[in-house]
Structures are given as C-alpha cells and as structure tokens.
Specification:
single chain, mainly alpha, Fumarase C, Chain B, domain 1, Fumarase C, Chain A, domain 2, 3 domains, two-stranded antiparallel sheet, 17 helices, 63% helix, 7% strand
C-alpha cells in the first residue's frame, strides 16, 4: 500500500525519461573516468551497455515496474544485470535527486525545441489561411458588437503575432532548464570527490553547470512553471482563435466554413456538422491554467532542499505538454483547410462601422474637436 501510494503513476510517467537518463548516465560515466574512479575501458563498457538498454526498452525488451519505483532504479538494475559489479559503480557521485533533475531538464529542452517547431507550423498554417482571405474586409468587434472596419488579413495576423510573442516565454523556460544539476547529488555536492561538473555539463550540451549545488533542488519547479506558463499562453491564443471560428462559422455569421474532416455529424440531425475539434481546443485552453496552478502550488511554502512533494510536478506538466502539442498539431492541419465566404463578409460591412472614421474626417475637414464630431456623427446615425 505504501509503495503504491508513494510511487503512484510515476513509474509510468518515467517511460518518456529513459533516453534522457541513459544520456545523463553515459555522461556521468565519462566524468567518473576523467576523475579516475572508472577506467576508460570500464566507462566505455558502461556506456555501451546503457545504449543497449535504451534499445531494449525501445523494442519492448524490458519495462519499468512499480517495484522499480522509477526509471532511474530500473535502468541501474538492468545495468547491473548486464555489467555485474561494474554496474553498481555508476552511482558514485550522484543521488537520485540530481539524477531525476538532469533527465527532466534534458527532456524539457527537447520539448521546448519541439514546441517551437510546432508553433512555426502554426504560423505557416495561419499564413496559408491569410492568403485565402487576402483582400476580404470584415467587421472588427468589441463587446461582441460590430465596431470598426477591419479585414481578414489583420484578424489572422493578430493571432500570428500573438503566437510569436507567446513563444518568448519558451526562451525563459529554456534558460531555467539549460543548467546541469548533475554532481549536486542530494543538493549538497559530493565532498571528497574531484568530479568536473563543467565537463559533465559540456558532455550533455548544457550551457553551464548549475551553481551553487544548493540551488539545484531549490530551483525545482522553476523550469516546470516557466514551461507550463509558455504552453498555457500559447493554448490561450489558440483557444481564442477557436472561439472565433466557432462563432464565425455559425449560420448567423457565415464568414467561414470549417473543413468537413475536422467537424463531426449529429446523432439525430442529418443536416448538422459540429465544430468539435475547435470546441475541444477552446476547452483545453480553458483547463490548462489549472495544470499551471497545480505546478505552482506544489512548491508553495516548501523549505529548501529536496522534498517528495516535487515528484508531483511531473503529472500536471506532462499532461500539459501532451495536450498542448496535440492541439498545435491538429490546428496546424485544420487551419489551411478553412474557407471564407466573401459575400457574407461583405454584407456584414454595414455603414455604421464607419462612424468613427466619419468623426475623424469632420475633425480634419472642419476643425471640430473630436468630442463635437463624435456627437454630430452619433446624432446623424440616430436620425
């Protein structure tokens, strides 16, 4: 019962971390060899065996069990099976604390790079959509009321710009993650061992080794919350776009038609096509902040050093990563398949939309104050 409670679903979540734990363990073996705690031959043997374990895992040759608790123990157990006593030497100079953290950070850096690629795909999809709507006017809305003249290109361009701005938060998440914690062990270093942490960081491609060692565990939750925030802001951009599309595709608006492949039929009404994909995008964007809140709350009021609470950062962040990337992928495919109805857009460009422009003209041509021009135009509309 205690094992199930303390491990939870962690051993399942850890499956995605195995390649990163292998990379970190190989770098650690080379660091141990550099310091003289392993011979070069031993380090080579360990690195080869770790690569074999990664291949076995990828081919279903072994799995992480509840009894292993996590990927790190599973990997070491498998290494000992392959290398005997040599496999037990690999843990010198590290703790499961820094072992967990380095694998997570390597994973986050890959997620950030992948996400930037997916967002670039979304930007391309929006560019494709903008080309379809080039030259088409549409009303701009405030308070969900027709407000001023706008156009399809500017409407789409706003979302493209916001997506680009939202990716800036990914850079902050990357800065938090791009520090190597390996060698900090349980948070207080490895007294008496001459391990070159800068060498380890270089081997793994990190910008630097994180210093001081006491900062490594204290920083947990920072990269997670920064990455989660970036994903939330990106999802919210797409949620608002999806909301626009759900509204603009109704019969009452008719500005845009949604691709059949990305809608679903009704179980009772033969004529209906429902915007389920876009509604779910909107719902995912609405739920995403709760996952960010869970991450932020986990580290609230924790003292310095490691706490088992930190294990619970994984589930909400991994869920958010998976959801966000799925949303980005499906929206990048759906958007280019949208079509605009120029007739319906043109019919929506009613004269009242030009009221502010008329007031501006009165200011320019008659020298009126804007307030006086505003009143005159408003009175003419009422008449």
């Amino acid at each position: 019962m205690v094992l199930r409670f303390t491990v939870g679903g962690d051993y399942l979540l850890d499956r995605r971390l195995l390649p990163y734990d292998v990379r970190a363990s190989q770098a650690h073996a080379r660091t141990l060899a550099k310091a003289g705690y392993l011979t070069q031959a031993e380090a080579d043997e360990v690195c080869t065996a770790l690569g074999q374990v990664a291949s076995e895992f990828g081919q279903g040759g072994f799995d992480i069990s509840l009894e292993d608790e996590d990927v790190h123990t599973a990997l070491e157990n498998r290494l000992v099976e392959k290398c005997g006593e040599l496999g037990k030497k690999i843990h010198l100079g590290r703790s499961r604390n820094d072992q967990v953290l380095v694998a997570l950070r390597l994973y986050y850096l890959d997620v950030i790079a992948e996400t930037k690629g997916l967002v670039a795909g979304l930007e391309d999809a929006l560019d494709s959509l903008a080309q379809k709507g080039e030259g088409l006017s549409m009303p701009g809305y405030t308070h969900m009321q027709r407000a001023m003249p706008s156009n399809v290109s500017d409407w789409i361009g706003a979302y493209r710009s916001e997506l680009r701005d939202s990716t800036l938060a990914l850079d902050l998440a990357g800065a938090h993650a791009d520090q190597c914690p390996l060698g900090s062990a349980a948070g207080y270093g490895t007294p008496g061992l001459a391990l070159d942490r800068a060498f380890t960081a270089q081997e793994l491609g990190f910008a630097r080794a994180q210093e001081p060692v006491t900062a490594c565990q204290l920083s947990r939750g920072k990269a997670e919350s920064a990455l989660a925030f970036a994903l939330v802001t990106l999802l919210q951009d797409l949620g608002r776009l999806a909301s626009d599309l759900c509204l603009f595709s109704t019969a009452e608006f008719g500005f845009v038609s949604l691709p059949k492949a990305f809608t679903t039929g009704s179980s009772i009404m033969p004529q209906k096509r429902n915007p389920d994909v876009f509604e779910l995008v909107r719902a995912h964007s609405a739920q995403a902040p709760s996952l960010l809140a869970a991450i932020l709350a986990t580290t609230t009021r924790l003292t310095s050093g490691y706490h088992r609470d930190l294990q619970l950062l994984k589930a909400p962040l991994f869920e958010l990563i998976d959801t966000a990337q799925e949303v980005f992928e499906i929206m990048s495919r759906a958007l280019p398949a949208l079509n605009f109805d120029g007739g319906r857009l043109g019919a929506a460009m009613t004269p009242d939309l030009y009221a502010a422009q008329q007031a501006f003209e009165l200011v320019k041509t008659e020298g009126l104050s804007f307030r006086e021009a505003y009143v005159r135009v408003a009175a003419s509309l009422t008449d």
